[in-house]
Structure to design on (215 residues):
């Protein structure tokens, strides 16, 4: 017995994964407005842990969301998707893991390490991730604006959000946090556009293990 799944279903599953992940991570970023950069705050650690869940949902669904408009995206769209994907992994999954588990431990066990300058290698790692995020999100946002197959205006918060989020070292932290929330809302909006049941269906056969005698 074979189970057939349409490409529309795959796109919609990817879209709803990015939609839920983006909204979840955006809501979990709100406590940062109140806790600031305090690594010892249990609220901040809990919010970072929740953001990891949202980040992972985005990572799972983003390839399918990109493939929905891959034909219109071209080479620059592909580069934008890849850079944005790596940016979410670095700044989202890895960064939030550090905030959820490592910084709270260091704040209680070795507070002098937290107050001091971070290791140079770690700074370069996140700096590279941030630069990839700027280039990738701008390209992905422009591609989304030009590709008229999904929620095209989701490209605006993607572009504005990632630029604002990287101004955090130079402006009040609230600006950077606002930018990150906008970026995540842009991703959620993009996922919503793909989730809507408007795409034509083409059949992709996905064989599953038979559960009984073949019919």
């Amino acid at each position: 017995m074979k189970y057939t799944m349409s490409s529309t279903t795959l796109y919609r599953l990817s879209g709803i994964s990015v939609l839920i992940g983006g909204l979840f991570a955006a809501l979990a970023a709100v406590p940062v407005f109140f806790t600031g950069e305090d690594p010892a705050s249990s609220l901040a650690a809990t919010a970072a842990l929740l953001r990891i869940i949202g980040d992972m949902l985005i990572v799972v669904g983003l390839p399918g969301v990109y493939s929905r408009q891959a034909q219109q995206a071209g080479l620059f769209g592909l580069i934008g998707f890849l850079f944005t994907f790596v940016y979410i992994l670095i700044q989202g999954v890895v960064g939030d893991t550090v905030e959820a588990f490592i910084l709270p431990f260091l704040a209680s066990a070795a507070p002098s390490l937290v107050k001091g300058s971070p290791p140079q290698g770690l700074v370069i790692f996140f700096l590279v991730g941030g630069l990839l995020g700027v280039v990738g999100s701008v390209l992905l946002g422009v591609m989304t604006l030009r590709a008229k197959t999904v929620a095209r205006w989701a490209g605006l918060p993607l572009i504005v959000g990632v630029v604002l989020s990287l101004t955090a070292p130079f402006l009040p932290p609230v600006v950077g946090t606002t930018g990150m929330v906008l970026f995540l809302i842009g991703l959620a909006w993009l996922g919503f556009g793909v989730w809507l049941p408007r795409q034509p269906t083409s059949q992709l056969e996905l064989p599953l293990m038979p559960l009984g005698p073949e019919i």
User: Anything to note?
Assistant: The first helix runs from residue 7 to 29. The helical segments are 7-29, 32-35, 42-68, 70-109, 111-115, 120-146, 155-165, 173-195. The chain has one domain: 3-196.
